[in-house]
Design brief:
By secondary structure, the chain is mostly helical. Among the domains are: 59 residues; 76 residues, no CATH class. Helix content is 50%, strand content 0%. The protein has seven helices and no strands. The N and C termini lie far apart (100 Å).
């Protein structure tokens, strides 16, 4: 008795040894037309094995590529999608470099830290005030995800000033008003504008 562990390793085990034997037989055919017909039949059988994938884009293209892999790219036929696929064309990609950024407080993350640095570079004005409130809101949510007990307006204000080296200060009264508006808007962050004398209603 011959066990599968003693046989040749299958390049694509998901199709089984029966399909691999068909591919090996196609490689022995000397007549090109007969070889082409055999390859077409093999691809049809391969597709029938996975009927739920027929609507997947490029499904047929992938089947022909898999046929080339099982034939070790030695099957001389007319591929319907151009030239024969090249060996190792779909090989293992090179590993992506992982960004090694030093984050002072990891619960805020690199994006928030870069945003706070941007705040420190912005000139004073309404735009920076609005962005400061929105940044503080995101900082508070990050604190809540990390440790609910640490979620505090004073902590947010201190961290914001520390990150910007004292260049940016949080208007806590406006920040609290913004949070109330956020709850009224169903969780949508809205920066409030201070109500001046002109905005006050006359009695």
């Amino acid at each position: 008795m011959i066990y599968n562990t003693q046989r040749k390793k299958l390049p694509m085990p998901e199709y089984g040894r029966g399909i691999q034997e068909m591919v090996d037989y196609a490689l022995t055919l000397e007549d090109r037309e007969e070889r082409q017909c055999c390859a077409q039949t093999i691809v049809t059988i391969m597709g029938n094995m996975f009927p739920h994938l027929r609507d997947v884009p490029d499904f047929k293209h992938k089947l022909w590529d898999h046929l080339a892999v099982m034939a070790d790219y030695k099957l001389d036929i007319d591929y319907p999608y151009g030239d024969m696929p090249k060996k190792n064309a779909g090989g293992k990609p090179a590993p992506m470099p992982y960004p090694m950024k030093r984050i002072r407080y990891r619960h805020y993350g690199a994006l928030l830290e870069s945003l706070m640095r941007k705040l420190a570079e912005m000139p004073e004005g309404p735009e920076r005030e609005e962005l400061t409130l929105l940044t503080a809101g995101q900082m508070k949510r990050s604190l809540e995800n990390w440790n609910r007990d640490a979620m505090d307006d004073d902590k947010v204000a201190m961290d914001l000033e520390s990150y910007t080296h004292g260049a940016v200060h949080l208007d806590r009264e406006r920040f609290q008003t913004m949070e109330l508006l956020e709850k009224e808007q169903g969780g949508r962050m809205v920066a409030s504008r201070p109500v001046g004398r002109k905005g006050r209603k006359k009695n």
